[in-house]
Amino acid sequence: MSLTTIDLTGKKAIIIGGTSGMGLAIARHVLDAGGSAVITGRTPSNAEEAASALAGSGNVTALAADLTDANAVEGLRAVLAEEHADAALLVNAAGVFAPKPFVEHTGEDYDRYQAINRAFFFLTQTVAGNMIARGTKGSIVNIGSMWAHQAIAATPSSAYSMAKAGLHSLTQHLAMELAPHGIRVNAVAPAVVRTPIYEEFIPKADMDSALDGFNSFHPLGRTGTPDDIAATVTFLLSDQTDWVTGAVWDIDGGVMAGRN
Question: Whole-prediction pTM value?
Answer without folding.
Answer: 0.95
